[in-house]
Structure formats: C-alpha cells, structure tokens
Design goal:
17 helices
Length: about 425
C-alpha cells in the first residue's frame, strides 16, 4: 500500500469513526465503543442487503477489498495493541493490583488454560454433532484465542459503570495480563496445529522455552524500558518532552519484544504500570502528569473508536454457512460456562484464606468481554478450512460479548454486588 493510499484509508476510517460516534452520542446514547460496533454492524448489513438487491454494484466485494487492505492482525497486534494496553495500564493502581495479585495471577494463567481446554473440547463436540468436524487441535486453537478477556473492551466498559475498587482491580488486572498469556498459548497451539503430523511438530521442551521467552522476556523488556524512561523523566521537567518519552517507550518495547519473540502486550502492560504509578509519583510534576494522562486518554479514545468500527465492518469478510452459524450460537453459552469455571475455581480456592466481594464471580464471568484481540488472532490463522469456521464462530461470540454483555454488565453489578 502506498503512502497516499494509506492516508486515504486513514481518512475514511477516522471520518466514519467521527460520524458514527456523533450519531451515537447525539441520538443512540450507547457506550461509545459499543455504539460504534452496532452502527457499523447495521451499515454492514445494509451493504449486504444492497449488494443482494443490486449485484451489479458489487458493493460487498469492494468493501471486502478495503477491509483486506487494513490487515487487522498486524494493525492490532503489532501496532495498536501495545498503545492501547500502555494507555490502560497508566490508569491502574498498582497497590490495588498487588493486593489481589494471587487472584489476578491465577485467573490470567491457569484460568486461561482451563477455559482453553473447556472451550476447545466443547467446540470439537459441537462441530462433530453438526456435521462440520474440525481436528481437536484446531478447536483448542479457537479455545485459546477466545479465552482471554479483551482489555480494550473491558477497560472501556469499566469507565461507564461503578464497581468496588477491589473488584475493579481484579477485572482490570486480569484483562491486562491474560491477553498476553492467551496470545502465548495461542501461538504454541497454532505451532502444534500447523506442524501436526509433519516434520515441524514441536516438543514439550520447545513449548516450555517459548512460553518462558514470551512471558518472562516480555515482562523484563517492559520493566527495563520503563525504568530507563522513568530515570530520564526524573532528571527533567518538560511536559511535551516527557510525553514524547512515553510514546517512544511504547514503540521501543514493542519493537524489541518483536525482535526477540517476546510478548509485546506484556511488555507494554509492565512499562505502563511502572510509569503510571512509580513514574507519576516520583518522576513527574503535577503539570506533566496531567499532560501525559490527557495525551494517552486521547490516544486510547481514537484507537478504540477505530478498532471497534473495524470490528463492526468485519462481518462483510465472513462466509456464512448454516452449521457454522449454529456452532457460533452454541459457542456463546459454552464460552460463558468456561469463563464461569475458570473464574469460580481460583476464587473458590482463594476464599479459604481471604474474603472477596459478594457477587465477584458473577461480575467477573459476565464482565469477561471478548473483542478485537480475538478477531485479530482468528484473522491471523493461515488460509484453509479451519480458518473460515473459526473466524465465523469467533465473530459470533465477540459480537454477543460486546453488545449483550457490554450493555448489561452495569445491571449485573447493581444486582449482585453488595
């Protein structure tokens, strides 16, 4: 894509984001990101309807070609995600996070693995019953990409509802870290699936090595980069330059992580937590802290708008078949059940030693939103039969999660949290 084409594409996306955002804010009154998904989804359906009525216009093929040029997996996973995670981590209280570290750590690791196993096995059985079977390993790949909650969606919803501080820390902390773990598990299972039955199959030692490099390496890069930025900011008091340092930090830890095959999401979260807490307290003046928070809030809002607009339009790229659509519908309660088990098991064990907010399991289950990360991972699958089936099922779960769960989580909190 040429620079001119990229500028034109960016102009179209940003203009649609602004127009749809205005329509939602002025008339629909939904939470901003949810409103964008709904409007873009209806626009997509309208495009499909017009294309069916007037096939000579070739609207759907044109829209698919435009979406293909965006390349959502690379755009999100190698570009937007680190910026969004850093922006989200800046606002998270590290002390509140540390006070619930065991719950967050277990849900973000063991919880993701439990959910992956339940969703993968359940999807394998559902597809077999519907006469559209997939190998178990590919169903586990789907389980891995759909199990982590999406921090972008979760943190966006938390801004619109009132949640007790300790419960908010668990929700935010888990969503920030479990996507990094989920991406690692997805990468490992995809490597196994791609090499199944061939010479490229990987063993347990290689899996363990990959997991350690991704997680520990990402955390180390984020900590090291964040500390360097923190030390630099301590020696100056120039808010514009310090904003530039934080922006450079995100791109640097992302580039280094990508180069050594470590987890860029984990690196972004760790560096964001360091700057947002230690950096705000000891390295910034009040004026600088306000400028940094304002800058990253703006970045967060713009990228959120673009991402959820694209999610709404992705329906144009899907090829629907009745058995797969039924599988997507059945996958919704399956994913929710897996989420319930992956939350209730660790919380139940930890309750033996510590009390937790009443209603925490219900809120964590229903508030575990899936979003752009799951769609991007599904789109990143290699071409072939498993990709199309997994993409349709993923999209169905994500749409239900964002629209139904996202719009009702406030009522769930009011009803069950005491």
């Amino acid at each position: 894509m040429s620079i001119v084409d990229a500028v034109h594409l960016a102009a179209a996306i940003l203009t649609l984001s602004a127009v749809f955002g205005y329509i939602n804010h002025r008339w629909l009154k939904f939470p901003h990101t949810i409103g964008l998904v709904i409007i873009a989804l209806f626009a997509s359906m309208g495009t499909i309807a017009v294309d069916i009525a007037f096939p000579a216009l070739n609207l759907r093929d044109t829209a698919q070609a435009i979406l293909g040029r965006i390349d959502l997996p690379d755009t999100l996973m190698k570009g937007m995600l680190s910026l969004l995670l850093f922006a989200g981590a800046l606002h998270v209280d590290l002390d509140a996070l540390a006070s619930r570290r065991w719950a967050i750590g277990i849900m973000a690791t063991i919880g993701v693995l439990i959910s992956t196993a339940i969703v993968g096995t359940g999807t394998w059985l559902i597809l077999d019953l519907l006469g559209a079977p997939l190998p178990l390993i590919w169903c586990l790949v789907f389980g891995a990409l759909i199990s982590p909650t999406d921090p972008v969606a979760v943190l966006g919803i938390l801004k619109t509802i009132e949640v007790p501080e300790t419960l908010e820390a668990k929700i935010a902390g888990e969503s920030l870290f479990n996507d990094g773990v989920g991406v690692v598990v997805f990468t490992i299972l995809l490597a196994i699936a791609a090499g199944a039955g061939g010479e490229e199959a990987i063993g347990a030692a290689e899996i363990a090595e990959l997991f350690l490099i991704e997680t520990v390496g990402g955390a180390a890069i984020g900590l090291g980069g964040g500390y360097i930025a923190y030390r630099a900011m301590r020696t100056i008091d120039e808010h514009n330059l310090e904003v530039l340092i934080t922006l450079a930090l995100v791109f640097l830890v992302t580039a280094v992580s990508d180069a050594v095959h470590a987890s860029a999401p984990i690196a972004a979260v760790v560096s964001g937590l360091l700057i947002g807490n230690h950096g705000t307290r000891f390295a910034m003046s009040d004026r600088t802290a306000v400028h940094i928070q304002t800058f990253w809030s703006l970045i967060d809002e713009i990228l959120n708008s673009v991402l959820f607009l694209i999610i709404g339009f992705e329906v144009l790229a899907l090829a629907f078949e009745i058995p797969i659509v039924l599988a997507a519908v059945l996958a919704i309660p399956l994913v929710l059940a897996a989420r319930l088990v992956s939350v209730a098991a660790p919380i139940g064990l930890l309750r033996l030693r510590k009390t937790y907010t009443e209603g925490a399991v219900r809120v964590l289950t229903w508030g575990g939103l899936r979003g752009g990360i799951s769609v991007a991972l599904a789109l990143s699958l290699p071409p072939g039969p498993p990709r199309e089936e997994i993409l349709v099922i993923t999209y169905g779960v994500v749409l239900f999660s964002i629209i139904v769960q996202g719009l009702s989580i406030g009522r769930v909190v009011k009803r069950f949290v005491r």
